[in-house]
Amino acid sequence: MGPLDTQRDLGNTARCEPGGGRGNGSGVRTQGRAAESVAGPRAIGLRTGHARGKWVWTRWTRWPFTPAVMVIAALAVVVDVVTAWSGISFGTLGRVPISPALPLGLILAAKIGLNRLGFDRANRRAWREFLIVGGGVLAYVVAAYAANIAGTDEAVGLLLAALGEELVYRLAVIILVGALAARLLGRDWRNAGEWGMAPGIIGLLVGSVVFSLLPGHIAQMSDALRALPFASLGFVLGYAVLRTGALIPAAIVHALLNLATLTVFAGDMTVASRNAISTAALFALVIGTVVAGLRLGILRRAPVAVEVPATAGAEPAISPSA
User: Fold this and answer.
1) Alpha helix (H) ranges present in 146-247?
2) In angstroms, rounded to a whole number, what is the distance separating the alpha carbons of residues 233 and 166?
3) What is the DSSP secondary-structure string of 46-65?
4) Cβ 212 vs Cβ 234: under 8 Å
5) Are 204 and 242 in contact (CB under 8 A)?
6) Which of 9, 98, 142, 321 has a CA that sits 20 to 30 A from residue 202's CA?
7) 174, exposed or middle or buried, with CB in 10 Å at 0-12, 13-18, 19+?
8) How many CB atoms lie within 10 A of CB 284?
9) Is 37's pLDDT higher than 50?
10) 110, exposed or middle or buried, with CB in 10 Å at 0-12, 13-18, 19+?
């Protein structure tokens, strides 16, 4: 938006034309009694105006839902939570149990569409630097972990565990809770892009809380305050996914944190080093989300009109007719 448009400011009730005639000699002529009434104190009190922009997210990602998607999402959440607390799994890779919910999560992803989960060309381009650098770092860390810590099976198990938790807690839970919140608020629940802000935030909060209450995470908490890092991690990962639709960047960060944590448990990394890696990875994910939002056109500068009062003695933009 450029300088304040006088015609628009008057609500188009008065027509302004260039030329002489009645007015203030400024080259603008107001016609009719409507101009006199509308161009009163407000117009006289304005000398000029300008626009400034505010960055805003226009929507969440576009995920279409059907009743079948909702059922699969609910099953994935229930199966993962129940089996995690019951100690039931498909077996282990190294020391890492493989959740029975993993196939349900993969079916859910297929029903939504892989292109809508970051595999389309636009999303790959939007996240390209993060995918190249993050993917390269993850490949190196996996190889180092397999060679020096616990073998290939456990390294692959940690990758699958991260992917499975992303499918359940950054996809299924957010879909269920967000769609329910949208329905209760009278909004279109069938597509995340139509939810509006509140249902998405509710879904992210619930997903992060449920993620924090998994038994493996609770075992690392000495008090309630220790739950905050897990909840914060879940929220940041979920925000990146729900904003851009891309699941893989969040899975990369999650897998890196899993590998770093077990390396600490093995005594081959200090807690301070793990914290530094976690901070760097999450910061990169946040920056990647912003860049991806700009490239996808869902993070935009929205113009905001600013009215500037006339200075003393300055000629008003419009004067009432004589």
Assistant:
1) 151-167, 173-184, 197-212, 215-218, 227-244
2) 12
3) EEEEEEEEEEEE------B-
4) yes
5) yes
6) 98
7) buried
8) 19
9) no
10) exposed
Angle between helices 128-145 and 248-265 (to 10 degrees): 30
Hey, is 236 helix, strand or coil?
A: helix
The model's pLDDT over 250-262, given as tens digits with 9 standing for 90+, comes to 999 999 999 999 9
Q: What is the pLDDT of residues 154-188, one digit of tens each?
A: 999 999 999 999 999 999 999 999 999 999 999 99
CA 214 to chain centre: 23
- Give me the helices (H) in 32-172, please: 32-38, 41-44, 67-86, 102-112, 121-126, 128-145, 151-167
Count of all residues that appear for the chain in the document? 322
Q: Residue 253: phi, psi to the nearest 5?
A: -65, -45
Instruction: Give the pLDDT confidence of 61-70 residue by residue, as tens digits.
Output: 999 999 999 9
Secondary structure (3-state) at 18: strand
The token pair that represents 88 in the structure block: 């039931």
Dihedral, CA of residue 177, residue 179, residue 185 and residue 188, to nearest 10: 170
- Nearest Cα residue to 138 out of 154, 157, 121, 159: 159
Contact 176, 77 (CB under 8 A): yes
Using DSSP, state whether 307 is helix, strand or coil: strand
Map residue 302 onto helix, strand or coil.
Answer: strand
Q: Tell me, what amino acid is at 204?
A: L
CA distances from 132 to 112, 162, 283, 288, 303 (A): 25, 19, 16, 12, 34
Q: At 96, which amino acid appears?
A: V
DSSP letter, residue 186: T
> For residue 77, which amino acid is it?
V
Instruction: Give CA–CA dist 201/301, Å, rounded.
Output: 22
Which structure tokens are listed for 7? 């015609």
Question: Would you say the C-alpha torsion 219, 225, 226, 228 has a positive or negative sign?
Answer: positive
Pair 199, 181: CB distance under 8 Å: yes
Own/partner contacts of 30-39, CB < 8 Å, gap of 24 or more, are 30/318, 30/320, 30/321, 35/10, 35/318, 35/320, 35/321, 36/320, 36/321, 38/10, 38/11, 38/13, 38/14, 39/10, 39/14, 39/318, 39/319, 39/320
E strand or H helix that includes residue 273: helix 271-296
